[in-house]
């Protein structure tokens, strides 16, 4: 038996070369190209509740990087470790495969991630030999640690054992392993699951990681060769721009966010600081595009830079792709040219509502367009065909753009449902062009939204249906889903897109536009005007006029804000001039004392007699305040001067004092809560939202018509919910 003891000094260089590339493979093994999942075997982001996972301790202790919890500036040279191992030197190079097989079977070969067990070593006579690194607990000088296989191989004189110093350095360890040796011990999670857009890695760090943000960024950049810039989101998407961009800070690398991004074989070039892009939506973009058939017509209402539109164009689907962001529009124009889809994709730069409203008629008026796709034929084949030596080709495929929209896509999940109010009347007066008079079906609408990620998903779906119904003024229920017991013409489908955070799920609700909505005349019966802020803005943009009259009698509790659906002016008057839509604002009483009921024809007593306003969509004070502020904001946008009339100032002063809710999200939440009480009239719901009574008795005294409509228990529950919402952010 021969056993030579030898401590190699030649392990370092091959380690670096082999391990670096191995490490890169591991770092980038996420299957979703769009997502860089740093550090090892995590499931894709979409399936996770949270993107912070406990560190995977893959490496045995002696292979882990040295610890330095005080490090605040990255010192790469600190990360070095020599691991004393043993190796089996193989005397005949041709034996290597066989011996490796035997030693692998006997579990004697070193099995540590990203370390190649095959090494070069010097023999006792100075010759160069191949060697196999052995498991860490096997000692060359201690036969009691050898397996029978090793003993036999040594005895046969096929191998001998020697010591080997394995050098591990910064290049060897993964981001997760290095950062874990720097972060405080009690932080047993590391930030991961970031997204990459072109050369930019985009982090969304929690505050407790802020002291380490530059370290994290630098290590991530080192470990991912395609990353040249690392940024951290400092506020939520959409918080500072309606274009869904976000404020960020540069953590590492060059300050250049002009990226080149590929998705579905299309190339997009854009400044990531100026447009919306989310690499995590690639699967969803693909899913929806797969629903569209070549030759169909799609209107993408909030198209961004075109991740639905451009790939759809490649599939010979006609798309009118709109986005309000002027830079997004420019990028889309570039993407259309770059990806050669100009025959199919036409960019627009309009407000989504204007775009939807105009789309039906605009497309009809534009008429059909035919695109012929010439055959791609090699020159010699073409010559042969012309010479009659080969058969003529079939006629080139032709696609004719339809005059009707087949699909609307609305991916602005925070608000898209609100934009659905643009659909009523989109094909007003065009009934005869659609089924059953013709074969033509009404368009499908694919609207994205967020919902609360309830334990019971059905609750989320019910909530979504309710929100859709409010906006289109037509009841859609979960029973209307395909195969359900409801209206099968609606073809409802709700798809879970992804979990955005533990309490927020993104959905795509698809439904066929009901004829009652599409053919509605002149916006008649537009839904819930307490959500019509944007419509007011839309009209204001066209008409540049606000008329406002506060309540005509000092004790009157009703002022009304009337909105005439296009193209008439928005006016806030006590006597609307035959408005098609009227929003009434119920001003609250100065005190909670019982007041004399209104006299005459109109009365809001135990029965509601509101005359012409009986079925009017009503606004609470908070909603009215929000509407007016939005309208003024719009008028003053771009530095325009606008002197508000005195009566408007007075009304705003009043609303500032008496509006119980000031925050927009909160106002919407109140609206949803109140609208879930379909047993109550609109007027009563708005009253409840304005008054925010403490108890059921008080509410019934101030709004007598509630008496027989709602039990004290239910009313109290509703009031408690309202109080909770008031306490929440107000
Ligand atoms: C969440 S992004 C979606 C972009 C793209 N569809 C995608 O899937 O990546 C929403 C887009 O809506 C655009 N947007 C915001 N408000 C809009 C409006 N009023 N009308 C049209 N587009 C709007 C933003 O500029 C942004 O590009």
UniProtKB/TrEMBL annotation:
EC number(s) from the headed UniProt entry: 2.1.1.228
Region (Disordered): 23-58, 378-399
GO cellular component terms attached to this protein's record: mitochondrial matrix; nucleus; RNA polymerase complex
Localization per record: Mitochondrion matrix; Nucleus; Cytoplasm
GO molecular function: nucleotide binding; tRNA (guanine(37)-N1)-methyltransferase activity
Main location: mitochondrion
Bias kind Basic and acidic residues: ranges: 46-58
Keywords: Cytoplasm, Methyltransferase, Mitochondrion, Nucleus, S-adenosyl-L-methionine, Transferase, tRNA processing
Reaction it catalyzes: guanosine(37) in tRNA + S-adenosyl-L-methionine = N(1)-methylguanosine(37) in tRNA + S-adenosyl-L-homocysteine + H(+)
GO biological process: DNA-templated transcription initiation; mitochondrial tRNA methylation; tRNA N1-guanine methylation
Binding positions (S-adenosyl-L-methionine): 285, 323-324, 351-352, 411
Family to which the UniProt record says this protein belongs: Belongs to the TRM5 / TYW2 family.
The protein's assembly and partners: Monomer.
Protein name, entry field: tRNA (guanine(37)-N1)-methyltransferase
Source organism: Penicillium antarcticum
Gene name per UniProt: TRM5
């Amino acid at each position: 038996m021969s056993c030579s003891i030898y401590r190699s000094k030649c392990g370092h260089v091959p380690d670096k070369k082999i391990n670096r590339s191995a490490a890169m493979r591991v770092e980038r093994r996420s299957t979703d190209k769009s997502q860089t999942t740093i550090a090892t075997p995590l499931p894709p982001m979409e399936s996770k509740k949270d993107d912070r996972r406990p560190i995977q301790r893959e490496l045995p202790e002696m292979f882990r990087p040295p610890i330095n919890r005080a490090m605040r500036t990255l010192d790469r040279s600190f990360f070095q470790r020599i691991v004393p191992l043993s190796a089996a030197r193989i005397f005949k190079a041709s034996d290597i495969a066989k011996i490796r097989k035997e030693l692998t079977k006997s579990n004697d070969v070193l099995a540590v991630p990203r370390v190649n067990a095959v090494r070069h070593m010097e023999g006792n006579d100075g010759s160069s030999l191949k060697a196999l690194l052995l498991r860490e607990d096997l000692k060359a000088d201690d036969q009691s640690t050898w397996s029978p296989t090793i003993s036999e191989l040594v005895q046969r004189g096929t191998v001998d054992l020697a010591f080997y110093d394995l050098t591990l350095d910064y290049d060897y360890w993964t981001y997760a392993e290095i950062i874990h040796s720097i972060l405080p011990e009690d932080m047993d999670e590391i930030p991961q699951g970031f997204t990459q857009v072109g050369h930019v890695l985009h982090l969304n760090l929690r505050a407790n990681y802020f002291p380490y943000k530059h370290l994290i960024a630098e290590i991530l950049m080192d470990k991912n060769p395609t990353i040249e810039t690392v940024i951290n989101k400092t506020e939520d998407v959409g918080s500072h721009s309606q274009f869904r961009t976000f404020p960020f800070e540069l953590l590492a690398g060059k300050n250049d966010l002009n990226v080149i991004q590929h998705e579905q074989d299309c190339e997009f070039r854009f400044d990531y600081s100026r447009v919306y892009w989310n690499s995590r939506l690639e699967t969803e973009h693909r899913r929806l595009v797969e629903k569209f058939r070549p030759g169909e017509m799609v209107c993408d209402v909030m198209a961004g830079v075109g991740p639905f539109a451009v790939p759809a164009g490649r599939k010979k689907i006609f798309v009118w792709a709109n986005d309000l962001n002027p830079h997004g529009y420019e990028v889309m124009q570039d993407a259309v040219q770059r990806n050669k889809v100009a025959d199919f994709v036409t960019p627009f730069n309009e407000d989504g509502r204007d775009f939807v409203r105009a789309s039906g008629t605009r497309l009809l008026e534009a008429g059909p367009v035919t695109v012929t796709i010439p055959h791609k034929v090699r020159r010699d084949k073409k010559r042969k065909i012309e010479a009659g030596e080969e058969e003529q080709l079939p006629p080139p495929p032709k696609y004719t753009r339809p005059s009707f929209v087949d699909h609307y896509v609305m991916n602005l999940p925070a608000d898209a449902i609100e934009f659905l109010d643009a659909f009523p009347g989109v094909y007003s007066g065009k009934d005869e062009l659609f089924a059953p008079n013709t074969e033509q079906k009404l368009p499908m609408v694919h609207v994205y939204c967020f919902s609360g990620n309830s334990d019971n998903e059905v609750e989320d779906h019910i909530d979504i249906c309710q929100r859709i119904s409010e906006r289109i003024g037509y009841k859609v229920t979960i029973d209307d889903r395909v195969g359900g017991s409801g209206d099968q013409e609606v073809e409802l489908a709700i798809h879970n897109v992804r979990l955005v955070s533990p309490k927020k799920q993104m959905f795509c609700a698809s439904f066929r536009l009901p004829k009652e909505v599409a053919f509605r005349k002149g916006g008649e019966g537009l839904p819930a005007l307490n959500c019509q802020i944007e419509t007011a803005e839309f009209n204001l943009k066209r008409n540049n006029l606000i008329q406002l009259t506060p309540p005509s009698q000092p004790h009157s509790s009703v002022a009304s804000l009337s909105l005439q659906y296009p193209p008439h002016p928005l006016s806030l008057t006590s006597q609307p001039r035959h408005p098609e839509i009227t929003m009434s604002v119920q001003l609250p009483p100065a005190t909670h004392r019982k007041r004399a009921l209104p006299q005459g024809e109109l009365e809001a007593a135990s029965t509601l007699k509101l005359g012409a306003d009986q079925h009017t969509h009503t606004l609470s004070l908070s909603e009215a305040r929000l509407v007016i502020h939005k309208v003024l904001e719009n008028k003053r946008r771009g530095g325009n001067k606008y002197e508000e009339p005195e009566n408007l100032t007075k009304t705003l002063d009043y609303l500032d004092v008496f509006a119980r809710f000031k925050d927009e999200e909160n106002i919407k939440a109140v609206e949803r809560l109140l609208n879930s009480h379909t047993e109550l009239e609109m007027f009563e719901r708005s009253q409840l939202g304005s008054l925010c009574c403490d108890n059921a008795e008080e509410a019934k005294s101030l709004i007598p018509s509630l008496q027989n409509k709602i039990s004290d228990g239910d009313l109290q529950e509703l009031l408690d919910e309202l109080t909770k919402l008031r306490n929440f952010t107000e």
